[in-house]
Each structure stands twice: as structure tokens, then as C-alpha cells.
Amino acid sequence: MTPAADPARPGEPPVGVPPVLACAGVRKVFGDRVVLRDLTLDIAEHEVVALIGGSGSGKSTLLRCVNLLETVDDGTIHLDGRDITDPRVDPDQVRQRIGLVFQSYNLFPHLTVLDNVTLAPRRVHRLARARAEQRAMELLDRVGLADQARQYPDRLSGGQQQRAAIARTLVNAPRLLLLDEVTSALDPELVGEVLALIRELKGDGMTMLIATHEMGFAREVADRVCFLADGAICEQGPPQRVLGTPEHPRTRQFLRRVTDYGTG
Amino acid sequence: MGGSTAAAAGSADGYQPSELQRRRDAYRRRQSVRSVLIAAGSTAVLGALLVAAVASSPGWPRVQQSFFDPAVAVQALPAVLRGLWLNVRLLVFCAAGALALGLAIALARTLRPAVFFPLRAAATSYTYVFRGAPLIIVLYLFTFGVPGLRLAGTPSVLVLGGCALVVTYGAYLAEVFRAGIESVHPAQRAAARSLGLSHAQTMRHVVLPQAVRRVAPPLLNDLVALQKDVGLISLAGPVDAIRAAQIETATSYNFTPYVVAGVLFILMAIPLVAVTDWVTMRAARRQTWAGAA
Known about the structure:
Chain A has about 260 residues and is an alpha/beta fold. Chain A has helices at about 60-65, 90-95, 115-125, 130-140, 160-170, 190-205, 215-220, 240-245, 250-260, and strands at about 20-30, 35-45, 50, 75-80, 80-85, 100, 175-180, 210, 225-230, 230-235.
């Protein structure tokens, strides 16, 4: 694995390498509500960035904009140097290279776990069923669900469903993985298995943008933590600094509030 | 339920139900026997009362003679059955046609690109017009109006009547399909699109399979209704079961042929209704399992 960040400037994006994802001046409005305002964020290859912030701060909206599930109202998003907010870009092709994992898993209930994972390879990449299933089984084995491949999602625990959803996303071999509060719908005892899987993905060098409420996990797995407030990045830096000795009063206020509930 | 059977069987860990549990199980068994007996008793009493009320009415012998005459029934049966065969054939073709048309219209209404605007508008106005138009008028327009155009290659009245049924029922079924498509949570669509599936692929592999399963009971319900409405084609000439019964009645001055046709219709509806119930029940059971898991 290549080092995620320049050791001389911990928490800062490395110099010289073009970023995998570059958001510049992103604005998103829902009706009268400005959800993202002039948001700028670069993510380098192999870098793991955690987005923290209160509900409604725009974390999920940013991920949905990057995945082109929402259209930005201003600014640009570049993936590997290519502007994906250009209306002429085919969103289906972009989405094949950016994986998104949802808070509520969103597995397809009418398909088995295996069929959930093979749907994209078979229908989008036109892989033969046998090839697709072989690859899917490797991934399911990796997330510890090989024995559940023929089950329907509603027979699985929340943690298993989320791991299946991650396998379903990984099957496209995405360039960038977006994780949207992936442990928020889980019982506390099931959070660990999902976090362990994400930790492994980081070990493999996956570039990730993670919206999370798990401060402890952000501290451990992220190369950089970004605190979002009012649709903009209020403070960012290495996790120890942002979570340990935050400079901005908004960050301090937010962290005090979440640690009061014992999640820190 | 599951708990009491497990207790009765005794389990692998050598568990024996306690005296308390055995008394509870015995009490529940006695209660269920009692419920069955009460239900049977009350049904028998009500049935007997109804039969007595009808049979003791002053006009009953006369009604029995003109509606339930076995000899007339036997005599009318072949003609009515011939008519019924027409109903069955029409039903099969019209059901297939209406389902295909309904699905196509529902899908057309989901298309967003600007280029499809005329298609979307046409689909929407179609459902508005043909859900409002009385079936009999549509039938007349198709079977009497279209031949009146004197175009070359005008199909038979049977085909034209079938088209009228397909067009009318297609509009109802389109709305049922649309309700199903809209009932699939938007997150499912988002998940499919985020994997790189196109709109069409998302519809075909993610939305429609869930939508059709959900609306199977109302779809089958509309097919049961269609089964009876195909007979309206007799207004344009073809002899269906009810028209055949009417002809028989006109020759024998006895209404028994109508009763024969009615009974045959009910018999034909039973499989469809049973399938509807079975599908609904299966869906409900699957949901409880999911809820319990």
C-alpha cells in the first residue's frame, strides 16, 4: 500500500499527485434551503476522509452529489481530473467507478445476496453468469458472507446486510468508495463487524469518503477529518487535531454535544 | 403456535413441559375444539333458517319450476357451454393484451427524457379517457364504428370487440402497474443507479419485479372482473354464454339457462379468485417473516 498522506504534512493531501476526487465551489440548494455552499474538498489516491457534522449539515447530500444522484447547483466535481458535473457526461458510467453504500443498505429484497452482488456485473458489464458469480463469491467470502449467498436479504442481520451491500458495491471495483452513515442503522453489537471490514478496505488502499457519526472510528481509520457545518467545511485536518484539539468554536461545540452522548 | 408444538414434542435438550404448560396446552386444545363446534352449529342453524324461509314462501314452487328445472338445465347446457368457450378464448387473449398494454402505458408514464414527452402525454391522456369511457360505448365504437369506415382488411367483430376490451382494461391495469412502480421505495432506484444500472435496467431488474409482486392481487382482481365483462361482446353479435342462455330462455320460456350460465361463471372464477387469495396470503406471510427477523 502506498502511504495515504505525506508524512511531513500529516493530514494534508499529498503534493504532486492529481486528486482522485476534487470538489470545487460546490453548491446545492433544496427549495430555499442552501445545503452545500461553496464547498471545496480534494481527496488523494488511497486517502480516507471522514466527514463529520450534525444532521442536516450536508454530509449525505455531498455524497449523493458526488455519485450524481443529485445535480449540483454550482461548482465542479472532478473524478481523476475529469469534470463529472458536465451535463454531457453519462452518469451511469461515472457511477460504475464510484461506489456508494447507504445507511439503510438498500439491498434488493427480491434477489438473493448473490444476485444482489452479480446484478451490476451481469447487466452493466455483461459478464457471463458463471464469471460474475465466481467473482461475487470471492467478495462474499471476503466480507464473511459466503455461507449466506443464497439467502434473501430479509433473513440477514443488519450487519450482514450492510456487509452484503458493501460487497455489492465493491464488485464494480470502484475508484472511490462513498460510505453514508453505514453503521447508523445498526445495533451497537453489529457495528464492529462493519467497521472491521472498512478498516480492511483501507488496508487495501481503497480511496474512501466516509460520512460518519462514529467519532472513535473516524479518529482511527481516517487520514483526514472534515467537520461540516452549514454546508461548508468548517475545519479539517488530521483526526488527532480536529477531534482532539479543535480550533473552531463550532467544532468544539459539536464534539462536546456528541461526546455527551458517549459516542466519542 | 410454534412454541406449543415444540413443547408437546419435547426437545433435544431433554426438556419436559411443566405441569402448568401442559394444563395451558390442554385448555387451548379444548377451546379450539369448542370454536369449531360453535362455528359449525351456527352455520347449520343459519342455513336451515334460510332454506326454510325460501322454501316456505308462497311463490317458491313457481320459482323452483322456472329457475331450477333440471330438464331445462340439461337441455340448455351444450349451447351455454359453446358460448362459454367463446368467453374463455376471449378472456385469455384480452387478459394477455390488457396486461401487456397496461404495463407498456405504465412504463411510458415513467419516462423522463424530453424526447418522450409526446409518448408520456399520450399515455396519461389514454388512462384518463379510457378509465372514464363506459365499456359498452367503447365496444359499440369499435364493433360498429370501425367497420363503418369500410377500410380494407377490417378484422372480424370478434377481434374488434376484443380490442375494445383490451383498450378499456389496459387503462385500469396501467394504473395498477403505476401504483406498484411508485410503491417501490426511491432508495431502491438510487441503489440500482449508484451501481451503474441505466434507467431501463433499473426498471427491468429492480423496480418491476418488486412492483408486480406487490400489485399481483389487484391485477388478478381486475382479471376476474374482465372475465365477466368479456361477455358484453355479445352486444355486437357473437354468442357468449349469457347470450346463449338468453336464446335458450326465449325458446323454453324458462329462466333455468341463466342459472346454468351463472353457475358456470362462478366455477370459472373460483380458480382465479383462489390464486388471488393465495398470492395475497403468501405476500402477507413473507412480510410477517421479514418483520419477525
